[in-house]
């Protein structure tokens, strides 16, 4: 019998790539219910599966709920109600901990409380790196199974050769400024280091909302400084809306180095995409990025509790190393496919074990 998984969400690239590349799987995933919220182009957020009453109304349609992310605005009490509903219907809960700090939350308290509810209640806990698993064990006493992040980039881009370009291009993408991002100090440090990086230039990308005075997300400190740096020729500034996937992959392959301007974080899909495309990442030491994929770390004061401040060199030194060594870190497409197949099999085993455990306790059986 094929177990049906209510994934929160199902449409995200990470979850889509939990399926094997050949499509042969014992698992069926429910599509994301259309959000109620008036969010332009929303495919899955905010997730309706975590709304009060959804589990009770749809319990006969799935066997396992697997929560990844999207619970940013769901209160711990409402998450506890979801857990209670799953228990009433004999449905296992699987949780993958992607973020130990929510990149959208300025303060960590709410996310800590939300994770506490989910991790303590989960029938199985997964995460992406050994460091994150150790932190989960220290904070909640739960053993988390470490399963790597699958590839992000699809073919033919995964195998596409990198086109040569002149000079040494460093990129910082300000995007729409999540709470975890603090790009201006990073940009200033790169600008100060450029004279010591022969042939180097800095490309800064920012979304239109960040750069538009009067917009609710206008970055009042960042926008005028970026324009001044661009006017003086110190920064190659690009202002635009969200890239399509093809535009994003093309952009990443136009860079030699992508610098992540994060104040806090845990794991990174951006890092995975860069690894797929052969772009070196210079990342802060506030998360578990170096355990996730090869990258060069730089020190961020007051970073993750598992790290000692000063354990990584300053950004300047990280840039000098990237410029000197020119790392050739890129995923092998065949290995990525084999890895994805193994990731899919591991998830099938996790779901089967969770269902067997519930059945042994007198819970529900598969719906299909």
N-to-C SSE string, H for helix and E for strand: EHEHEHEHEHEEHEHEHEHEHEHH
Please tally the β strands and state the result: 12
Largest sheet: 6 strands, parallel
Strand proportion, as a percent range, falls in 5-15%
Determine the number of helices (DSSP H or I, runs of at least 4 residues): 12
- Helix percentage range: 25-40%
In one word, what is the shape? globular
CATH class group of the largest domain: Alpha Beta
Overall number of structural domains? 2
CATH topology of the largest domain, by name, is Rossmann fold
**Main β-sheet, spatial strand arrangement:** 2-1-3-4-5-6
Name given to the CATH architecture of the largest domain: 3-Layer(aba) Sandwich
Instruction: Determine the mean pLDDT.
Output: 93
What would you call the quaternary organization?
Answer: single chain
Region (Disordered): 19-39
Protein name: D-inositol 3-phosphate glycosyltransferase
What's the helix and strand layout?
Elements: E1 4-8, H1 13-16, E2 28-29, H2 54-58, E3 64-67, H3 76-88, E4 93-97, H4 109-121, E5 124-127, H5 130-140, E6 145-146, E7 168-175, H6 183-193, E8 200-207, H7 222-231, E9 236-240, H8 245-253, E10 257-259, H9 269-277, E11 280-284, H10 289-292, E12 296-298, H11 315-325, H12 333-360
Parallel strand pairs: 1-2, 1-3, 3-4, 4-5, 5-6, 7-8, 7-10, 8-9, 10-11, 11-12
Helix pairs in contact: 3-4, 6-11
Protein name: D-inositol 3-phosphate glycosyltransferase
Organism: Terrabacter ginsenosidimutans
Region (Disordered): 19-39
């Amino acid at each position: 019998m094929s177990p049906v998984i209510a994934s929160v969400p199902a449409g995200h690239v990470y979850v889509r790539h939990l399926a094997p590349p050949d499509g042969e799987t014992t698992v069926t995933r429910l599509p994301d219910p259309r959000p109620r919220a008036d969010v332009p182009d929303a495919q899955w957020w905010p997730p309706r599966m975590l709304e009060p009453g959804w589990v009770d109304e749809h319990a006969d349609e799935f066997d396992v709920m697997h929560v990844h992310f999207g619970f940013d605005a769901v209160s711990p009490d409402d998450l506890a109600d979801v857990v209670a509903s799953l228990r009433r219907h004999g449905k296992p809960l699987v949780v993958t901990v992607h973020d130990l700090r929510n990149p959208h939350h300025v303060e960590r308290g709410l996310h800590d409380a939300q994770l506490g509810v989910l991790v303590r209640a989960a029938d199985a806990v997964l995460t992406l790196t050994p460091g994150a698993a150790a932190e989960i064990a220290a904070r909640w006493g739960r053993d988390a199974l470490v399963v790597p992040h699958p590839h992000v980039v699809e073919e033919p881009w995964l195998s596409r050769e990198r086109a040569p370009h002149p000079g040494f291009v460093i990129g910082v993408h300000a995007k729409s400024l999540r709470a975890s991002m603090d790009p201006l100090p990073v940009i200033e440090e790169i600008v100060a280091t450029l004279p010591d990086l022969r042939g180097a230039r800095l490309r800064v990308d920012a979304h239109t909302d960040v750069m538009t005075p009067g917009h609710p997300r206008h970055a009042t400190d960042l926008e005028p400084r970026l324009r001044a740096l661009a006017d003086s020729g110190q920064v190659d500034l690009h202002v635009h809306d969200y890239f399509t996937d093809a535009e994003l992959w093309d952009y990443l392959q136009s860079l030699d180095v992508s610098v992540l301007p994060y104040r806090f974080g845990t794991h990174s899909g951006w890092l995975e995409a860069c690894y797929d495309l052969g772009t070196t990442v210079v990342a802060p030491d506030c998360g578990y990025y170096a355990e996730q994929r090869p990258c060069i770390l730089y020190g961020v004061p007051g970073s993750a509790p598992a790290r000692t401040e000063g354990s990584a060199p300053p950004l300047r030194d990280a840039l000098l190393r990237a410029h000197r060594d020119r790392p050739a870190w890129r995923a092998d497409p065949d290995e990525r496919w084999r890895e994805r197949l193994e990731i899919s099999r591991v998830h099938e085993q996790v779901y089967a074990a969770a269902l067997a455990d519930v059945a042994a306790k007198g819970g529900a059986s598969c719906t299909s």
